Amino acid sequence: MPNQGAIRRWFDRTYAEKGLTYLRPATFYAIFMEYLGVRAGERLLDVGCGPGLLVGEALRLGAAGFGIDLSLTALAMARRRLPAARVACANAEALPFRDGSFRHATCIGTLEHFLSTDGALAEMCRVLAGGGAACIMVPNVRALKWRLEAKLLRVHDEDSHERAATFEEWRAVLVRSGFAVARIERDEWPRRPRRRRLLGGRYLVPLRWANQYVFLLRR
User: Among 19, 57, 94, 177, which residue carries the largest CB count within 10 Å?
Assistant: First the structure.
């Protein structure tokens, strides 16, 4: 049975072996800033920040970027890359911030690793100010990519506690935690974010088969 110690060790090992190659290029994370409309002077918290690529985008816009992660290896990378970033080792299910501390919160590709999805989402909702916005990206269990990786390639290590769900299941969890779903985008990596739409703004692949879902939420 996975526990936080096992998850931490998995990510420490992964970042030590793969470094930034484990993640997408830093420029890709700008799309999440656009979705949220992040502005200079606003406070943003990235839950599961890893080496700080998204926090770096917030800082580039003049926002105050904060991040928490379990992996000490990833946090050391973040501090070397971004001396101005405020990152800390913390549990997503017990965020060390006061109620209403942030205008924005993000959780990109990490919610599916948490032991308590409900607990982490409730904490994100708690630290958002009234009217605040969150952006959360999660994998689709119906996607061909996930099925190939899980069933054939077996790339989802049990120690990382990674799992996927359907669109309907993810949406129900988010709403149950106190969020209102304002908008849904699809992650089409490795396509460039601004070149994803085809056929006059329509997608070739129906939403139910998208690789990952990007939920834009309101507090």
Answer: 57
- Report pTM: 0.91
Q: What is the DSSP letter of 158?
A: G
CATH of the domain at 121: 3.40.50.150
- Looking at the structure of the chain, the number of domains it has is 1
Cα separation of 48 and 94, whole Å?
13
Residue 77's closest CA among 5, 22, 125? 22
Helix (H) / strand (E) element for 118: namely: helix 117-127
Cis peptide, bond prior to residue 190, ω within 30 of zero: yes
Tokens of 205: 């692949």
Amino acid at 145: K
Task: Give per-residue pLDDT as tens, 2-37.
Answer: 688 888 999 999 999 999 999 999 889 999 999 999
Domain ranges, residue 81: 4-218
pLDDT digits 0-9 by tens, 161-191:
788 999 999 999 999 999 999 999 988 676 6
Q: What does the block give as tokens for 111? A: 């919610």
